[in-house]
Amino acid sequence: MSDPKPPSRDAVDNSYGGNDPRHIDVDDPVERAYWLKVLDVPEHVLRAAVVAVGPSAQKVKDYLKQRR
Hints:
- There is one protein chain.
- The chain is mainly alpha-helical.
- The protein has a domain at 21-67.
- Helix content is 49%, strand content 0%.
- It is built from three helices and no strands.
- It has helices at 29-39, 43-53, 57-67.
- α2 packs across α3 (57-67).
- The N and C termini lie far apart (57 Å).
């Protein structure tokens, strides 16, 4: 019997956005894609929001809500 392989990154459930659903990692392509879809913003807007208020998902959501 061989040792089971760990699941690939694609097989891991990232439905909440990554390792910590409270933070946005714009440098992680899977997480970035998730947040771009959830927040319905272009990448440059997401990156600017993270620069402005930090990686806290709630702070980014609040920031984007104020800017709309």
